Amino acid sequence: MEIHMVTIKHFLALIIAIAVILPAASAMVGGDKAWFLIHSNVDGASVFFGGEYQGVTTNGELYVEYFTTGTPVTYFMVTKDGYSPYTGQITHYPAKGEVVDLYATLQPAEPTPMPPPIGGSIGWYTVYANVDGASVYFDNDLKGTTANGELTVQVYVTATPYQTFRVSKAGYSDFTSQITDWPAAGETIKLHANLQPVAPTQPQPSPVSVLTIVAGAFGAAVLLAFRRK
């Protein structure tokens, strides 16, 4: 009977201890509730407390529940695509049932500069030649043929610049020159090529060999002897 009474006493003591510990533990985990009210100049912005997502703003506001006995959060962040993230320090904390206002003003993000398209803006070269139908090459790239003594070549001013041009036509010596000027956007640079006719090749007489001469003389002698008979 005595053992039974001791057991009951221990059981009652355990219940009392649990009744005391549970509220304390609850307070340690979170405790009483309060709120932060986030004000933002944009809707649909994501709100983070200490790096943890809390929700998005509606009509420029979001209530964030806070436990007054919990671990205090020291900063908050508000983000939205197209805006620079806003990060603010939390220096004032609400008491039980209280609301503390926090304000975040998001600024539109600077647009990321896009790289210019390969080539960029356009300029031109006009190649003048003294013959029509001449082929024009820029750094050995065929650009076309001259018509009415000229050819306009489009280039991109931010592309790798050409260094040489060549104009050629059958019956003429090739004309090759350095390119020392490059057009700006919308500008035209003039290049001139003067082709010279190639001198016609004269056929060279074939040399007569000694054997041919001897054979001819021998044949003439035989023919003469035959006639005398």
TrEMBL record:
Asked if the keyword Membrane belongs to this entry, the reply reads yes
Tell me the protein's name: PEGA domain-containing protein
Q: Which UniProt keywords apply?
A: Membrane, Transmembrane, Transmembrane helix
- PEGA domain boundaries: 125-197
| TM spans (from-to) | 208-226
Q: Which InterPro entries match?
A: PEGA
